[in-house]
Amino acid sequence: MSPEAIRASGHSTARIDGPAKVAGTAPYAYEHPVDDPAYLVPLVSAVGRGRVDRIDTAAAEAIPGVLKVLTPWNAPRLTEKAEGEYSVLQTPEVLYRGQIIGAVVAESFEIAREACSLLQAEYSEEPHDVVFRSDHPDAYTPETVNGGYEPDTARGDVDAAFARAETVIDQWYSTPEEHNNPLEPHTVVAVWNNDPAASDQDSAEYTLTLYTSTQHPHGVVGALAPVFGLEPDRMRVICPYIGGGFGSKGGPHAHDVLGGLAAQSLPGRPVKFAVSRQDMFGYVGYRSPTASRLRLAADRDGNLTGLVHEAFTQSSRVTEFVEQAAVPTRNLYEVANVRTSHRAVTLDVPAPFWMRAPGEAPGMFAGEVAMDELAVELGVDPIELRIRNEPDVDPESGLPWSSRRLVECLREGARRFGWDPSDRRPAVRRQGNTLIGTGVAVATYPHLINPGSEALIRYLGNGRFSVRIGATDLGTGAWTALTLIAADALGCRPEDVDLEIGDSALPNGTVAGGSSGTSSWGTAIVTAAEEFGKRFGDDPSPGAELSATAAENSELEHYSAQSFGAHFAEVHVDADTGEIRVPRMFGLFSVGRVINPRTARSQFIGGMSFGISMALFEESIRDPRFGHVVNHDLSEYHVPTHADIREVEADWLDEEDLHATPMGSRGIGEIGIVGSAAAVVNAIWHATGVRVRNLPVRLDDLLPGLP
User: Fold this and answer.
1) Do residues 455 and 387 share a domain?
2) 664 pLDDT above the threshold of 90
3) Does the active-site annotation cover 670?
4) What pTM, to 2 d.p., does this model score?
């Protein structure tokens, strides 16, 4: 091993994929070169619930260049596995406004769009319900919530704890429906090949090939091959580059199925389909609105004696999805008596799905604002209150922590931020017409490793190695991080690693989701490298290769592993208008060993910026009369601009957690957003004395209470 090869990871490294992206040569899904593509534009439902009785296709079919008009009556049939949102064009039933009910495929996008505008649909409309509320009469207890968690848990004697409590906080908190809006929308290029032997395409041996923007190529194959009646080895998914996803691309959606159906109806002809920005607010997932009732019981010193978190989330008649909003409060603090519950409200809306830190982001907003309210009620510094309730072991499982340095994050973060615990009176700090406040909140996110990732290593000669795994890079830096991990494991320089990812033809890679990607894929690479060394020694022959699958991490049977952090925010509020600015924000995190500081810092800052956006901007407004999101574009769905995100800084503690992964790392992709919205809202209270419990914060919330 050469000296320069030692511990390649841990050093700030430029993105390996950066030059290709800057030069515009990195092929995203829609840009993959295919011969003679056709173009698809979908027709979506204009009613909130009912049935399509007829679609008049004559005018569309008469336009030159139209190749196919698909409807529920002529689309290729899928198998009985096509359930929920995958049952595209299989029935005329309409379950929500914006559902795909037809499509035009044409020689050009412009022709397809024009023809689609001429389609005339007739409906039998039924009453619809799209209004989410916690007191909905049809609210029910799901069997599980997202992540496979039990919906309800309890420990201790909660009722007795509240009966004896010296101080009680009992409030409702809510977060709105929000939509993932990556710069690259959902796109797919589908190729159906009925006669693979007669084709000279690279994917000739596959019946269906999808070039699709996805966080999980193997997951798309696993979900959709049965839908199309294909064996998994007859389907291929290719996605080396992704222009963001924030969770929404963690699994296939209706557009992937529609692309496959269109290609099947035109065998041998590639079909390109890019979801429009307006349809990004339709059939490709979103964050469910949530309502949380938080009850905290404490003694006069601030020691928590009881906690109740009742979470209500929106689901869909299409596919059940229940945000696990109450899960993070189960083990964050030392509380002997805890009860949590989840109730789902099924509505005539598209299916919710993952959006960055599903469950943790809305749930921790509620929990951390409630903790701030308790601190105010007790007259205790909010940092000190959290430290007083720090658990020695995981309160839920009883296992010791693999590493938990949250107190250090709070204390060191406070020092570096310039936190002043001496004066927490609200609405007293002022510079001219600007009210100034500071707020704090903690962050936690579970350490997840998805089993089943496999890496293949081949020695190429001259000190070079090929490393192949079906991972994906969301734009988070996986190309670079996995190269650094491989270099460390193989004892070579990063430039001597030839990494291949983003293809279901490669060895199995688990999903880029739940902050699990680097942990899962990196563990597989380290496992394969260790096995390679055992079999071939220090002097392998060119062509020597070996694949290995990461085994279950037995350490996690004995330790509880999570990532942690502390957010600090300063806000400025105009005393006359209520206009809110966040001039600075700082986050300090405990996440184990950081593989690549450059891309890790970007992830933390991105998540914290997400938190500012969650606190102040984002809200999808669904019209109860018609059932659709009315602000379905980026001019009316507000996200921060550069002017809104000012001094946002992130850092982490120097540590290594070998219980969590052989690299010593834990997940970092989502912890930046968890708790950050609460820090902003808590700072707004300190600046103005107005407590806001419903996101996003509006000027109307502040104006009546401004001093």
Assistant:
1) no
2) yes
3) yes
4) 0.96
